[in-house]
Specification:
- By secondary structure, this protein is mostly helical.
- The protein has a domain of about 50 residues.
- It is built from four helices and no strands.
- Helix 1 packs across helix 3 and helix 1 packs antiparallel against helix 4.
């Protein structure tokens, strides 16, 4: 069963920024992650994916991904040519 996404890309970018500020102020990475209610592994994965993005860029990224996704009605079976 798939879980519903809890965080929007804009929210992720804001959380990353808050955690980076806390780390720059001398906290260990685990402490701001606990305050944000995420695991450190999630923080590093998000940083890899969204690191360096502004909030507006994250919103455009989501729109771009949605526009390139294929609709569910497209069938791959008909793509083979018969000889």
């Amino acid at each position: 069963m798939a879980r519903r996404k809890k965080h929007t890309p804009e929210h992720v970018v804001n959380l990353l920024r808050q955690i980076e500020v806390a780390v720059a102020n001398g906290k260990m990475t685990s402490q701001p992650c606990k305050e944000a209610e995420i695991r450190e592994q999630t923080y590093y994965r998000w940083r890899k994916e969204y690191g360096g993005l502004q909030v507006e860029q994250a919103a455009r990224l989501v729109l771009t991904i949605k526009s390139f996704s294929l609709p569910n009605s497209v069938s791959v079976k008909g793509s083979r040519s018969s000889s």
